[in-house]
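Dissemination and training. As part of the outreach component of the grant, students in the summer workshop were shown how a complex can be specified as a set of sequence lines and then modelled as a single object. The example used during the hands-on session is reproduced here so that future cohorts can follow it. Participants entered these lines:
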Amino acid sequence: MTFEEIGEWRKTHYTVEITPKLVDREVILGGWVRNFRDLGGMRFIIIQDKFGERQITLKKGVVSDELFEKSKMGYQYCFMVKGIVKVFKAAPGGIEIIPSEFKILNRTPEKLPIDMSGETISELDLRLNNRALDLRSKRNQAIFGIRGEMLNAIRKFLLERNFTEVTTPKIIGSATEGGTELFPIMYFDKEAFLTQSAQLYKEQLSGVYERVFEISPCFRAEKSRTKRHICEIFVLDVELAFGDMYDILKILEELVYYVIEQIRKNQMSLLKCLNMEKKTILPEIPLERYKYDEIIELLDTKYNMDVEWGEDISTEAYRKLGEQLQYYYYITHWPMSIKPFYIMPSKEAKYSESFDLQMGMLELTSGGTRVHNKQQLIDALESKGLNPKSFESHLNVFDYGMPPHAGFGLGIARWITFLCGLDDIREAVMYPRTPDRLTP
Amino acid sequence: MTFEEIGEWRKTHYTVEITPKLVDREVILGGWVRNFRDLGGMRFIIIQDKFGERQITLKKGVVSDELFEKSKMGYQYCFMVKGIVKVFKAAPGGIEIIPSEFKILNRTPEKLPIDMSGETISELDLRLNNRALDLRSKRNQAIFGIRGEMLNAIRKFLLERNFTEVTTPKIIGSATEGGTELFPIMYFDKEAFLTQSAQLYKEQLSGVYERVFEISPCFRAEKSRTKRHICEIFVLDVELAFGDMYDILKILEELVYYVIEQIRKNQMSLLKCLNMEKKTILPEIPLERYKYDEIIELLDTKYNMDVEWGEDISTEAYRKLGEQLQYYYYITHWPMSIKPFYIMPSKEAKYSESFDLQMGMLELTSGGTRVHNKQQLIDALESKGLNPKSFESHLNVFDYGMPPHAGFGLGIARWITFLCGLDDIREAVMYPRTPDRLTP
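and obtained this result:
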């Protein structure tokens, strides 16, 4: 196999920039062979790149014999083309390129490990094994195009509201929330862990920057093999000081609204590609707010399902709930007994100032008001059977003027599965990590 | 200690928003006691918040006795104040607040572990032990304000140039660059590692999204205890396809220029606080480019320092170089023998298509053109004594149309040390990790 060098050639445009305005202009495109048709005397190549695709048309006699011969490329060959833009209504973008020169930069074997013709969708594990190739599919371009829009919208929304982007450590000396399911690491001669959540650090930093956020990896050593769990998650953490849960409920629903608004405004074609343009719609805000007590009452009266007060809601019960409440809504005031130590109890202490943001049957976010009084936090640790000594360096911070604060955490991939209508969370991650998957 | 509750009170403004325009208006501020003076019948409290500070003035007889008594707060008490804005030229912002009510939200002990009066700077390790408190100092507000501006500027610059923000895994199945200095982790029943660099994944993704970047944690198990090394670093990784090192040299110098321009435009007061307004200045671009051969020639003729061809440049030699070349410049075409396997050799194969971006004596960035031909990459691995079998899932990607590509990596904290004139890289990180430091 010989390789041509890129040399002085540079792309003059992305495919989507080639519009009828550029008719008769010479352009250079670069990308991959998405598809081709050979009609004997005519050949059509669909070149795909970062943003889209265009058709290259070769007619024997019009282009040189040498070029016609060279145009015999396979799926996903990497190449560049120099050519003239012509209007052709039946082609993508109403345009075709009449080529004068190709550079074939890299080839592929005749048989690819997964279908790249767009005719079928290969099995997910096979696709993940060949992820860099798989990500070039139209479906994945749509999923990750929406993800990019979401991340940009989140940052824009939060920065405009004076949130500071912070960076907290991923290697920690002791268990964040006293949880199991931590990955242990050897840190020189000491034992350490990978962080499960930025919870304690973002709380500390709300005592410095007041409004903070972080979008960063967290690690969960859960051996569950469901379609909703992965071991390396990418989480949006938000915390604000001088406020409580009600400030968070408002900011979060505005954020949800803004993100969906931006996706619909800027990426409608990608939503359509995933058949989600009628499902990922603007929610009505403020979102409906139900108390935990109302939810278990509803489950009892409407579905005759008995949830014991103080218990978590079962998957089966959530499924019923999802029939009744189909889009985004809040469940607030959970029993303190099933919430972590840092959550603020309500005035009536068996309840807590906490909430989940639900999307139908599925939980998208948890959050609430936090405890900011040191003694109260120590008592809460003890009541959860945790040893305050292991939290010493965190507890110290509460000696130095911690403000009242509240916040939430949101799994980026989980939200993408909702927005894109995916069946498996692994589809929402470029390189997912599960108990069985460490590569690529 | 009693705590007051925030209740319905919410901040109406940040301190910096309180300007003479708001004279005679009632406002609510929240923050911490930065300083206070007690002149018997008069008391002055400086309240600090996320963005700045303002003076609260209490005159006996003007404010109630009860309020005057309550105003006796210590350093870094967390409190809110309701009061009327008055013009007072000698105070910060030309403003003072005449309070009508306080809420003391959290207290501090009389003696704080580090100096927060701004009169002295406590020893760094002591400050890091009490980081959440330490970060409220003016100096740290300046450092991390500049860091925030830098991160936003980097993102804006790259997104405007069609770079896609990607997320690569932090837990990897095999050694990224075949390096030692990896942190091993137990991944269920398998051995795995924390990533040292996003190198291989960003290369793969340049074969999907063409232009990609990531800003994410990487982990280096180096036991060096210098002022330039930390174990958890935060790295900007950039990669572009259909181009080479010269495209990267241009983008990187434009990025450096843009970031400094934005910092000078939006954060000049923070630069001044660090006495860096005359040092962190706009570089002339294009930056000077020196070949490795020219650098060792210069060291020989000007300083009589003999660097053997093919060797790295010693710290001592860099120190000399820093006398001669004081700001940003490039060193290109390093010997292939000291570059990693994925770097493209030059036509004259003992050289490589690689570069460092230097700032005086210090290296800020490394990068170059990458190999995109699979067989050439296998040969390069073998010539570096690495086993291609361990890179199988990475090498597979090169079967499926990898484009020519090039890129660089840049340590965020290292750059902050230059921009802010810091002596120790730990000052540039919110919660640094070193061989000796796992907390807070």
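Chain B touches chain A through 97 residues (CB under 8 Å). Students were then asked to discuss how this feature might be tested experimentally.
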